Automatic annotation (TrEMBL):
Species of origin: Marilutibacter maris
Lineage top rank: taxon: Bacteria
Name of protein: DUF1249 domain-containing protein
Pfam family, one: DUF1249
Lineage of the species this protein comes from: Bacteria, Pseudomonadati, Pseudomonadota, Gammaproteobacteria, Lysobacterales
Length: 164
């Protein structure tokens, strides 16, 4: 048996759910470095770096073990009027994980996977959403967004709270 084959046999295989939990942990670390949400009170924050693409971070609700957020650009979709792209996020403080619970990137989740998708399709969709979130957070950091560029908080419009 070759050394590579022996090593491969000893390494545990990561299933899709384990991979998803890893994405949540990576996104939590990125988000913490970027916006330090533990210090933010409920309200709307805007990150302005002067490129015309301001980022809005809504701290919708704070709970003992979780925080509900929405991350979006300050520009609406011309067809729907909704911010696009936009991601609703849930921070799990004790587990140190950040989950994109749902995203709007031109389409709603029901349009993408249907109303009653099989479990494997749900996991796949969550993997795509959270992979997108990780790449978006990296992009925002590269552009210069972060705690130093946040302005706010302002009152969150009622429409945002009703959508969550």
């Amino acid at each position: 048996m070759s050394t590579a084959a022996a090593t491969a046999e000893r390494l545990p295989r990561l299933n899709r759910f384990g991979w998803l939990m890893g994405l949540y942990a990576e996104n939590h670390a990125r988000f913490q470095r970027l916006f330090a949400p533990a210090a933010l009170e409920a309200g709307r924050y805007r990150s302005v770096i002067g490129d015309g693409l301001d980022v809005c971070l809504d701290v919708i609700e704070r709970h003992r073990y979780t925080t509900e957020l929405r991350l979006t650009y300050a520009m609406p979709d011309p067809v729907t009027g909704e911010p696009d792209p936009s991601a609703y996020l849930r921070v799990y403080h004790d587990a140190r994980q950040l989950e994109a619970t749902h995203c709007y990137i031109g389409r709603r989740w029901q349009d993408v996977i249907g109303l009653y998708p099989p479990p494997a399709e749900v996991i796949g969709h969550r993997m795509r959403m959270n992979t997108f979130l990780g790449k978006w957070l990296e992009y925002l950091a590269e552009r210069g967004h972060g705690v130093a560029t946040l302005q706010g908080p302002e009152a969150i419009p009622k429409k945002v709270i009703e959508m969550s």
